[in-house]
Amino acid sequence: MNYKKYLLPALFAILLTGCMADLAAQQTEPSPAELMQKINDLEHRFDELAKGIDDILWYQRVGDVAYIDKIYITGPPPARVKNPTAMGAGNPLKFYCYVFIPRWINPGDKYPLIVLPHGGVHADFTTYHTHIIRELMAQGYIVVAPEYRGSTGYGKSFWMKIDYGGLEIEDAKAARDHMVENYEMVDASRVGIIGWSHGGLIALMNVFNYPDAFNVCFAGVPVSDLIARMGYYDDEYRALYSANYHLGQTAQENVEEYRRRSPAWNAHKLKTPLLIHTNTNDDDVNVLEVEHLIKSLKAEGKKFEYEIFQDVEGGHSFDRIDTRTAKEIRLKIYRFLGKHLNPPRKLNSVSDIHKAAYRKQSN
């Protein structure tokens, strides 16, 4: 059953009723600004409900092949604190991570780890990734998916901790370190990081900044040049970055800061085996961004692999959807990862992907 389809509208109606009751209790006519603030706050509560429902769906969709956990760890203190002298102002930021462990593995053996940061500005790790997780479980990867600062579904305060291309990079690295240090079955010598879109940026910046922590990286349709991105997006999108709780300045006002957070301007740091995919009809990350990254890596004399796909159906999601073409492209990704991480099992065909999707995996 699609719980979101039926429950979320009903829950939203309940919350909206409560919101209007609160305003009515004030016995004064609310101003438009007050009403808008109430609605914005309500959206965050709604996102928390949606997150809770999606967490339940994880167990339904991959619980037959994976042990699923949601751990609570820490990253660096927030980038911006209103009162730096307040009690606890310098404390590490707490955030959640999903952990997926194949049910068929032997806890006494060692297995490769995949760090999988989600994409999107103010997005979260959802069951959108169901088939990818099942495919990784079938190969014997342990997966950690950090809900880094700014992710949706954890309240307004956490949402406003966003630090795009900044400390979110450290959150993903903290997730990697936590798994290596606390899970004996994780092989510290076989750790990869993969991501699409914004997650691709996080993957790239991690291997640029911490080349010794990762053995391989895949970046799919990665956000690669924030300066160019601010040029072809609209004011509403730009405002997500220049907001006073975020960077606080536009790219025009502080071009160096936007460049510091852009993979294309950090290409000289690459030391890790890297595969990049992009699509010419991408409707989110314009191919020109990824082309800039590719040209920068070539100019620095870096060895890496890439493929620019021509108008593949699905646009931005071309290799994450469930078409045959997408599955064939994912096989290329898995082969590349497998060369460097040596998982105990391999997916060699689309038929293998179908088995991962629809059959319970055995020892």
UniProtKB/TrEMBL annotation:
Signal peptide: 1-21
Keywords: Hydrolase, Signal
GO molecular function, one term: serine-type endopeptidase activity
One Pfam family it belongs to: Peptidase_S9
Top-level taxon of origin: Bacteria
GO biological process: proteolysis
The Peptidase S9 prolyl oligopeptidase catalytic domain, residue ranges: 136-342
Protein name in the entry: Prolyl oligopeptidase family
Source organism: Lentimicrobium saccharophilum
Organism lineage string: Bacteria, Pseudomonadati, Bacteroidota, Bacteroidia, Bacteroidales
